[in-house]
Every structure is written in structure tokens, then in C-alpha cells.
Automatic annotation (TrEMBL):
Protein name, entry field: Cytochrome P450
Amino acids binding heme: 441
Organism this protein belongs to: Xylaria grammica
Keywords, alphabetical: Heme, Iron, Metal-binding, Monooxygenase, Oxidoreductase
CDD domains: CYP56-like
SUPFAM superfamilies found in the cross-reference section: Cytochrome P450 (SSF48264)
Record family assignment: Belongs to the cytochrome P450 family.
Cofactor list: heme
Length: 496
């Protein structure tokens, strides 16, 4: 009898411990605010089990609680987080950066493959390290942009697309745009020619193709703690990441056989010279090179894909913007300052950035102390937080009841109106595609100049439409873009 009671007791303790373990994962911690909704744990598992589209998921599960309460509790990246979207709350997050410092993957999940990949860098660092990295990068990222590199690469891209279209019914455009974006960032910012455009077998592209599904696999993204178990497949992923970082660094170094000067306006040169004079460790040189490469090509690539999609879907608008660009002289058509004076091109780009922020959701902050979000949401010290630009950029109080509609005219009639609204929306945190505040994107100027020139060359060289057989879907998770976009492209008569 005693033995049976003992057994029952042990069983009860076991069940209780198991319950505690599961509850820790599937329920938010007790110290999380009670007065905001909880997104059910299973939401995060959907991309693991189903073919999903993150826009559809957003409208089904997140839109209502976020619109009503402006913040929710959500499981992501192995932790419970508070996802903040209401512009007044976001304005507080951006303004009081010290209350909401960055806590990147290297802090959140230090043993994960993702942390090994991104590490501590200019985007994730805080305090003096961030200041050092930003001081090194700013003069290069804010210098005048030499767009002749993008012009040359865009012309090469157009011929590759036409060659592919000649062979196929339509072009799977993603890999081409990625190679183009890589060519731009490496040649323009890192000062090294990788010759990846038109060379699908380039070792760096191949490595990236192998790594991405391993890093951005929804299961491993949500349960990074499992990377501690040293499973063979994850150890293999770590090896690939190390190989990729070494390959990238060696390619950048090859482009800088000359002596790099600290006052150079080339980012690659500035990072290398900081390493040579002892300001940067080898680790920080590698991580900052990697993040410049990743942020500098992936975001422009995603923006370009979304913009091509938007115009493929609206042939009339494509034709109107083309006419506007054609009204410029040939020299002005590749001059970003001249292109920035065109109202339709400007509003169409701003509207694409508003509706399809490439980094639609980011969870990389952690409260430094207890902080009151707005008037009544108490966030305890150590709470992971994040933001969702897709939601904030569609705030109906600011953008009106048709905020979900692609309507470039909402930006105004003149370019002055548009730039004023851009600044106002950014300062009110109702347009957070480039983050904003002290930690605003440092590549914004470069990205916009490159994008204007890329769009201009596309518009004046090609007409494009959606392949009717393309399944209209956005990516399931992570960066937001049309999934495996297929276009039919046609050369414009007399364009070449
Ligand atoms: C369409 C293009 C781009 C978009 C939408 C974009 C968006 C963003 C966003 C949302 C952040 C904040 C990330 C966070 O919260 O952790 C950021 C930061 C940053 N971006 Fe971009 N980005 C773009 C292009 C670029 C380019 C081309 C570069 C050049 C290397 C770049 C360099 C940076 C840097 C250095 C930061 C860190 C700023 C800091 O914390 O001080 N970005 N960007």
C-alpha cells in the first residue's frame, strides 16, 4: 500500500514537472502584462506544418488583436515576446532607445546557428560597440552614391532576363534579382567585385542557397534552444555558416590589396583599416562585413521584387510610371536626384515601402528596466519586445480606412508633399519600414538611390507582367516578399 502511494506521489511530481515545462513554452511567463491579448502558441507552428502566406496569417490571427490593443504577447524565436504595433507605443520605443535596447540573436539564443551567422554587429550591438561600428559605417553609407555601378549591373541583369525569357515561358526572377543586389552592394559598398551576376554557380551564392533553408527553417527559428543538442544536421549547418563567413571575408579582402585608409568613403576599406589599426577585432570585422552584405543586398532585393510585383499586377500604373521616367533626358533617367523629382515614381516607391516593408516583423529588443508602455501596459525588466511594420504602416487612424489599399496618390500631388508626409509619418512612427529614431537604418539613402535607378532602368528597358500560372503567394515567414515570383518580360522596342 505504502509503495502504491509512493508511486502515485512520484507520478504526480513527474506530471507536475512535465506540465510546468510545457506551460513554460506554450504560455507566456506570469510576469508578462495581463491586459494585452495572447496569440495562441500554435500560431507560431503553422508555417512548420502548412503551406502558408504571412499576409493571410496576419489578417487571420494578428490584425484584430493588434488593431484593438496595439500590443500582444506572442511566441517567437524560442521566447515569449511583446509585439508592439500601435504608433504611439512605437514612437515611445524608438524615442526611448535606452529603455528598449537591442537584444539580437547573440543575446537571445547565443548557441543557435542564427546567432553564429549574425553575431554582434552594427545592427545588433548597443552602447560603445554600436557607437564604434556606426562611426565607422556612417561616412561610407551617407556619402554620395556612385550609381554607375548599379547602371552597369542593371543593364547586365536585363540581358540575362531577356535570355532566360527567350528559353522559357516566364522567368523565375528571385535568383537574378538576388545576384544583382549582391553585385551592387559588394561593388558599391564593400569595394570588391564578386562577379556573381550571371554566375549561378558562384561559390558564395551556392553556399547561401545551402545555408538559408537551414537558418530560416521555421522549426529551428522557433526552437533555437535545440541547437544546443549538437544534432549532426545542426553541426553541419554551423560548419556551413563558418565557411560562408570565411569565404565572404576573403572575397572582400581580395578587393582591397591596396592599403586601406581610415578616411576612405568605401565601407570595405573603412572596416579593414579599422581592423588593421586595432579598432576592430577579427570577429567584429567578420560580423560587420557579413551584416553589411546581408542587410545591404537582401532588403534592396526584397523591395525590388515587391515593386516589380506591384507594377506587374497594375499594367496601367506601370505604363504611367514608364511615361513619367521617359519624360526625362537619358542622362537624368540614371540620376537618382533627377528621378527623386518625379511624383508618380516617388509615390509608387513610398507606397510599396509602406505596404510591403521588407523586414515586416522584428523581435530584437529587451526592456532594460520596468517600463510603462503607454499608460497602462507594464513591461517588466528583461521582457523581449519586437515590432511589426506591416501592421504599423497600415494604421487606419493615420492612413485612413483604405490603409490596406495600394494607393500611391495618398502621398500627395507634389514631391514636396510626399517628402513632407514621409517625414511626418516617420516621426509619428506610422511608417517604420526603416525603423526610425536613433537606430534608424543607416543604408536608407543608399538603398533609395539604388532603387530609383534600378526601377528606372527596368521601366525604360522592359515591360513585364505576372506569369498567369504563378500561385499568388507571399513568403510564409521571415522577410516579406512575393514567393518565387515568376514574370514574363519583354524588351521595349528601341530600348537597346
Ligand atoms: C529597402 C532597403 C532597406 C530597408 C527596408 C532597411 C530596413 C532596416 C531596418 C528595419 C533596420 C532596423 C533593424 C532592427 O530593428 O534591428 C535597419 C537597420 C540598418 N540598416 Fe537597413 N534597410 C535597408 C537597406 C539597407 C542597406 C542597403 C544597408 C547598407 C549596408 C543598410 C544598413 C543598415 C544598418 C547599418 C542598420 C543599423 C542601424 C543602427 O542600428 O544604427 N540597410 N534597416
Amino acid at each position: 500500500m505504502v509503495f502504491q502511494w509512493l508511486l502515485a506521489g512520484v507520478l504526480l511530481i513527474f506530471v507536475w514537472c512535465f506540465y510546468q515545462l510545457i506551460a513554460k513554452i506554450v504560455l507566456p511567463p506570469a510576469y508578462f502584462p495581463k491586459n494585452i491579448p495572447t496569440i495562441p502558441f500554435y500560431y507560431t507552428l503553422l508555417p512548420i506544418f502548412k503551406e502558408v502566406d504571412q499576409e493571410e496569417l496576419y489578417h487571420k490571427y494578428l490584425e484584430r488583436p493588434l488593431t484593438e490593443c496595439g500590443a500582444v504577447k506572442i511566441f517567437f524565436g524560442g521566447h515569449w515576446n511583446v509585439l508592439i504595433t500601435r504608433p504611439t507605443y512605437m514612437a515611445q520605443v524608438l524615442k526611448y532607445d535606452g529603455d528598449f535596447p537591442k537584444a539580437g540573436n547573440h543575446v537571445k539564443n547565443p548557441h543557435s546557428v542564427l546567432a553564429l551567422y549574425t553575431g554582434e554587429n552594427i545592427i545588433s550591438a548597443i552602447g560603445n560597440k554600436w557607437k564604434l561600428f556606426a562611426d565607422l559605417a556612417k561616412p561610407a553609407l551617407q556619402a554620395n552614391v556612385d550609381t554607375s555601378i548599379m547602371v552597369r549591373n542593371a543593364q547586365r541583369l536585363i540581358s540575362l532576363l531577356l535570355q532566360e525569357q527567350h528559353k522559357m515561358a516566364s522567368v523565375d526572377i528571385g535568383d537574378y534579382i538576388q545576384a544583382y543586389a549582391i553585385a551592387n552592394v559588394t561593388e558599391s559598398l564593400l569595394g570588391s567585385t564578386f562577379e556573381a551576376l550571371g554566375n549561378a554557380k558562384h561559390p558564395l551564392l551556392q553556399l547561401q542557397r545551402e545555408i538559408k533553408p537551414k537558418i530560416f527553417n521555421p522549426f529551428h527559428l522557433n526552437f533555437p534552444g535545440l541547437d544546443r543538442l549538437r544534432l549532426p544536421s545542426r553541426e553541419e549547418a554551423k560548419k556551413l555558416v563558418k565557411k560562408f563567413k570565411a569565404e565572404l571575408s576573403s572575397l572582400v579582402m581580395k578587393g582591397h590589396k591596396h592599403r586601406c585608409q581610415p578616411d576612405s568613403t568605401n565601407l570595405g576599406c573603412r572596416l579593414l583599416s579599422a581592423y588593421t589599426n586595432g579598432q576592430l577585432s577579427e570577429y567584429h570585422l567578420q560580423q560587420n562585413t557579413l551584416i553589411t552584405f546581408v542587410a545591404g543586398h537582401e532588403n534592396p532585393m526584397i523591395l525590388l521584387l515587391s515593386n516589380l510585383f506591384v507594377l506587374a499586377d497594375r499594367p496601367d500604373l506601370q505604363e504611367q510610371v514608364r511615361k513619367e521616367v521617359m519624360s526625362l533626358s537619358p542622362a537624368d533617367r540614371i540620376n537618382p536626384d533627377a528621378l527623386a523629382t518625379l511624383p508618380l515614381l516617388t509615390s509608387m516607391i513610398f507606397e510599396t515601402l509602406r505596404m510591403y516593408p521588407p523586414l515586416s516583423q522584428i523581435m530584437n529588443k529587451r526592456t532594460a528596466a520596468d517600463v510603462m508602455l503607454g499608460e497602462d501596459i507594464l513591461l517588466r525588466a528583461g521582457t523581449y519586445t519586437g515590432y511589426n511594420g506591416y501592421s504599423t504602416n497600415r494604421n487606419r487612424e493615420f492612413w485612413g480606412p483604405d490603409a490596406d489599399l495600394f494607393r500611391p496618390s495618398r502621398w500627395g500631388e507634389t514631391v514636396d508633399d510626399m517628402n513632407t508626409l514621409y517625414r511626418r509619418a516617420t516621426s509619428k512612427a506610422t511608417f517604420i519600414t526603416f525603423h526610425g529614431g536613433k537606430r534608424t537604418c543607416l543604408g536608407q539613402k543608399w538603398a533609395l538611390a539604388a532603387h530609383r535607378v534600378s526601377m528606372s532602368i527596368f521601366l525604360t528597358s522592359l515591360q513585364w507582367r505576372l506569369d498567369p500560372t504563378w500561385p499568388r503567394k507571399m513568403t510564409p515567414a521571415g522577410p516579406l516578399m512575393p514567393k518565387k515570383l515568376r514574370l514574363q518580360v519583354e524588351q521595349i522596342q528601341g530600348a537597346r
